[in-house]
C-alpha cells in the first residue's frame, strides 16, 4: 500500500508537468510574435504616447487590453486569446470538480489556474516593459494624413475580442449596441440548441445549432469588417470639408482632394 507521501507525489507531478507545458508554449508563441512584430512598431511620429499607468490598468483588468491600447496588436491578441482559453478551462474544471469531486478535474483545475496566473503576470510584465523602454507609441494618424485618425486593425481586433468594442472605439455607438446584441443573441441560441441536443440527441436541435452557428459566423465577420472600415471613415465628412478648396485662376473652379 503506497504511503501518503508517494500518493501526493503521484498526484502532484502531472499537475506540475501540465503547468510547465502550458506555460512554456504560451511563452514561446508570445516571444515569437513579439520579436516578429517588434521592429514594425518603431516608425511612429511625435504625437502623444499612451501612458504606462493607463496601459497597466487596462492589462490588470483584461490581459492584452494594455497591449492593444499601446497599439502592440499582435502581442495583445496572443495574450488575450491565451487568457481567454485558460480562464475558460479553469472555470470549466472548477465547475465539474464541484459537481463530481473528481481528482482528475482537480488536477486540471490546478494546472489551468497556474497557467492563467502565468499569462496574467506575463501580460503585466510585458506592458510595463514596453512602457519603460519607450516601445509603446500608440496609433498616430491625422485627418488629412495617409494614416486615418483611428487604427483600422486596432478597431478590428477590438471587435474580434468583443463584438461592438471596435465600434465603440470608432465612436459609432448605435452600431456597437446592435452588433453586440445580435452576436449575443446568436451565441445564446447556439448554446441553447447545443444543450438540448446533448440532452435529447434529437437531430432537429443539431440542425438548429448548425444553422445559428453559420449565422453567428457571418455576423461576427461583418462586425469585425465594419469596425475596420469604420476606422478609415472616422470623421471622413470633416476631411471632405477641409479638402474642398476654391482656386480662382482663369475661371472659378472647384478642386476635390480625397485622401485614402
Automatic annotation (TrEMBL):
Q: Which keywords does this Swiss-Prot/TrEMBL entry list? A: Membrane, Transmembrane, Transmembrane helix
The cross-references to Pfam families, in alphabetical order and at most eight, read: DUF5683 (PF18935)
Q: Does the keyword Ribonucleoprotein apply?
A: no
Keyword Membrane in record? yes
Query: Transmembrane segments in this chain: where?
Result: 20-37, 77-95, 107-125, 172-191, 212-234
List each copy of the DUF5683 domain by range.
53-105, 150-202
Checking InterPro entries in the record gives: DUF5683 (IPR043738)
What is the protein name for this chain?
DUF5683 domain-containing protein
Q: Which organism is it from?
A: Caldithrix abyssi
Instruction: Give the organism's phylogenetic lineage.
Output: Bacteria, Pseudomonadati, Calditrichota, Calditrichia, Calditrichales
Amino acid at each position: 500500500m503506497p504511503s501518503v507521501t508517494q500518493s501526493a507525489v503521484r498526484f502532484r507531478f502531472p499537475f506540475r508537468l501540465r503547468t510547465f507545458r502550458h506555460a512554456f508554449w504560451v511563452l514561446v508563441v508570445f516571444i515569437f510574435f513579439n520579436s516578429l512584430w517588434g521592429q514594425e512598431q518603431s516608425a511612429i511620429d511625435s504625437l502623444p504616447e499612451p501612458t504606462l499607468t493607463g496601459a497597466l490598468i487596462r492589462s490588470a483588468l483584461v490581459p492584452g487590453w494594455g497591449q492593444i491600447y499601446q497599439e502592440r496588436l499582435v502581442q495583445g491578441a496572443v495574450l488575450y486569446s491565451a487568457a481567454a482559453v485558460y480562464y475558460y478551462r479553469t472555470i470549466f474544471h472548477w465547475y465539474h470538480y464541484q459537481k463530481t469531486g473528481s481528482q482528475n478535474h482537480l488536477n486540471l483545475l490546478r494546472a489551468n489556474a497556474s497557467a492563467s496566473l502565468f499569462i496574467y503576470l506575463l501580460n503585466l510584465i510585458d506592458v510595463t516593459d514596453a512602457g519603460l523602454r519607450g516601445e509603446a507609441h500608440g496609433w498616430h494618424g491625422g485627418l488629412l494624413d495617409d494614416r486615418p485618425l483611428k487604427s483600422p486593425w486596432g478597431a478590428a481586433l477590438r471587435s474580434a475580442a468583443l463584438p461592438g468594442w471596435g465600434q465603440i472605439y470608432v465612436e459609432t455607438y448605435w452600431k456597437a449596441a446592435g452588433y453586440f446584441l445580435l452576436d449575443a443573441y446568436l451565441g445564446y441560441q447556439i448554446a441553447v440548441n447545443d444543450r438540448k441536443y446533448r440532452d435529447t440527441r434529437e437531430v432537429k436541435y443539431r440542425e438548429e445549432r448548425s444553422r445559428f452557428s453559420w449565422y453567428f459566423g457571418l455576423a461576427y465577420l461583418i462586425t469585425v469588417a465594419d469596425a475596420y472600415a469604420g476606422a478609415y471613415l472616422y470623421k471622413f465628412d470633416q476631411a471632405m470639408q477641409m479638402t474642398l478648396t476654391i482656386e480662382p485662376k482663369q475661371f472659378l473652379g472647384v478642386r476635390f482632394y480625397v485622401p485614402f
